[in-house]
């Protein structure tokens, strides 16, 4: 029997106290504790504590002694991250071997993990994975055998390890699985429950181990647990579903009804379910389901889809219980005859209705929803649709690769059956042929890998050198390649390469390194989804068949289960494994992927036909570096730009058909079966560590709340706009931002050979421009095709955009290809699912919205409404016939959104009272240069605040026009003094010329970047590019000077932020070790600029020096980033990035606060950074919310709070400075250095001085009086500087022999004085956002 836990604290002997070494000496107390003993000062840092919002808790977590930052030294960080990398690689290999059933190798990996002492506290989790897999292999037949193995392992193999509650849950599950009625088994169960470490409830909380059958037997049959021991999501189902049979093998559910997630849908229900169905349907008929929406929440649809088809005529009429309930519910609503026929014909099966493919034959859920007359019916309809969509979303995330494959096969067979002469021209037909050619190669490679890992290969001495290398490589990547079905891997590889077309600066191709990693990562993502679905199916397998009446409870339990599993997920495949798997799959696709080509025989002039590789591998130079690239054949590029690609979009990145999983911690939110992290951190373990710390401390709940509001806004496609776009697209002509079809690049003919060199140079430049334009148009057209195809797939659907954050806290949808942050075309296609009555204010704001979209947005609100009223005739004509003679809408700044609003207004005015119109159109409220608004509030800048509409005014202020006038005035003065450039430019300064530079100046645009921005405007006036650039350089200086003059307070803060970043990035921790110093005097600078947003989100600037790892693949050697590396910081980027990133973190905080507040008021809310969207009737309420939240944000002096946080976070840091070597301070320091050198017996270094100061600080903070006295007596070079008043004035910028290097305490500059502007004034500013 497994020994009960001997309750002693063993982990304390395993976790070493972090020591700090310098020249062989160690402090036995952790340095962080020595140097960070006091908490953040709550008096100064939490000014306005009632407006804390999470800042105080979060900042205290990340500056507390228990939190270990990443800036001790490069050497120590390297050691820590190397160990993390080793553990992760062993973890991933262990998982792969267990899933592939290579248990001997898995046990060897376990032993390697056990040897890593720092990993011992977490080792039991690894062992539990092994223990679960041990039984699954089928070699163990009794619980006594498993118990004996476990006892032997923990007593002899891993003696320092104790079981935990999950270990006991595994034993309980398997005891019940073997024989739940055997007396010895029951005795074992009682023992396991008594051995609990944190109560029986903790054992029962392991939902990923214990199944519903386990709970039922433990509770109903054996009476070993109480109701209170079960998790909340489980107890209701178990209580209401008692065991009705005494069969010994009740736990052994008929497996043919519960296949793996990849199996086909089960259409036959058991007799009990049929009885329930008939009873429910009869009741529904009597009571009219439309009046009882509660009943609809119990609809059961657990289908898994394998097809994109949604055509009812092609489907077999086989209904499950859940489908009949859904159909019966919908037919009970007040529908017209056409809608009733649609529903009667429609096959409510998630398996056959993943997404909309043929909009002419598909049901339009949105139109049905709009036609319903009562709230009760709409609620009933949405409840039923949500039930149906739960299963479709499950299918979409887990079965879309199969769906794509079925679509290819369908198109191939259909074309062949018709004898279609153009069969070879269809993209899907090509993909199907590639798939069939590639599949045997992948299967053979998987077979070879299995043989290599099982030891059936010939001995190494019998292999050639090349065969031995291949055998060794298969041992590395083989465990991973065996985890996913070969067919799915083929589909994923094809889809990934099509998606990566024209990325990474490669025209008509992609970078090899990016491609191999993308394919490897996509295969890993598929594996993770499959594992989660498999676990879910296992745990809930005996509930799905019998619990139609408990559907809502089951869904809640499943959601809880998925969250637990995803939150526990900690394993990622190594980049090297991803690269090798990706390269193998791509190599096979290159081998089989062919396209048909035609050409002309140069001699006979006859047409000839043949095949060419669809993909080819080669090299090209990009920005001076040699890159491996994969090129796509041009004929295939043409198809990617023209054909429908709905089966080519990665399913995990599509909009969701149901509300996203709510964010509750840093790695659990968004999609159901795919893990997303709260912050998009690109290979930044530092950012993840800070994020995890504050998430575990529950300090960023306000951030979660805001993201959840964004994710729960329901959308649908504007069918009218889609129809216009489709018509334009199909013509293939240039239309607005959609390029026309251009099959071939037409270059200018070359000039004569004897022409002037300048003419040849001009010819080359013009042809280069033509080539770039051709490539750009193809890329844009392909992107437009993606957007239109996704929109087509979601016609009539209700969908959502899950969101997460970038490292600055800005929110972005997880669906990258199509969302409301896209271009004008994407935004024009989107409307809110829910409609609201316009009312008088909504009608007003809809008119203002149209005026804004058109570009008439600097006038008063009254004038904007009048603008719309004046153009009502144009508006109606455009809405009725968008492509007719009157195309007024195309003159707008945002034409597609303008057309959508024209149609909305036209529909409203068809009613007798347009205010009664139910509107679905989002109405926007945009900030006035939002970055400058935050700067003006930070600095209390009255003049700046007035220019960006923080101050109430009768008309909106236009900061861009104001800057243009200031620049024109400066040029006028310069022209009078004879400045030639000023004379040329003074009458060419417009709002448009300066707008982008003014907007980005506050975000840290460089002089060079601003020059190119202005040149983009001037190049239309001056044809000579070189001359245009010269004028742009000149004008940029004046624009910068004008902005600085107008926003003086903002620029003082901007300069202060930059100086803080400069000093922090050049600072050194006192507990740095000497190994991080090059020759003892040149340290690696490791300190990132880190701050906490008002909502508590820690921001870590990720700008560090890049390091690449070389991985040899069968395509080429690729250099990939190491996700575990923490390198020295890039000081230049740290300084340049901090001012704009800090402002971005504030506008992100304002947006999330506004989202949360709008959600509380029941508003549908969306945002594009500083543009906020809601229904027209709700704009006034939204305006109140966003003004109040801006005031709430800035009532605290955020700059003072930032300074206090920096002082705490970077206290006891030092920096290197230079002083005059002849100064009195220099002489004193030299005396101390000489004494130190004598005691060391060698020349003292900066590392020695740092250690000396570190020791002095330790003694001063000791609790022993004699040590404190010794500390007071010590004199270090740093203490001498601290005693010197005004030592900053002694610092020199010279770096010659007249100066000497010293260490000085890190001291940040004083914050600029704050002006008199009171942020509360903006409550009455109607143009703050408008």
From TrEMBL:
GO BP term (any one) = mitochondrial transcription
**EC number(s) per entry:** 2.7.7.6
Where in or outside the cell? Mitochondrion
- Cross-referenced SUPFAM superfamilies: DNA/RNA polymerases
Q: Name one GO molecular function term.
A: DNA-directed RNA polymerase activity
What does the record list as coiled-coil region(s)? none
State where it is primarily located: mitochondrion
Catalytic reactions of this protein: RNA(n) + a ribonucleoside 5'-triphosphate = RNA(n+1) + diphosphate
**Ranges of compositional bias, category Basic and acidic residues:** 249-268
Q: Which GO terms describe its cellular component?
A: mitochondrial DNA-directed RNA polymerase complex
Q: What does this protein do?
A: DNA-dependent RNA polymerase catalyzes the transcription of DNA into RNA using the four ribonucleoside triphosphates as substrates.
Q: Tell me what this protein is called.
A: DNA-directed RNA polymerase
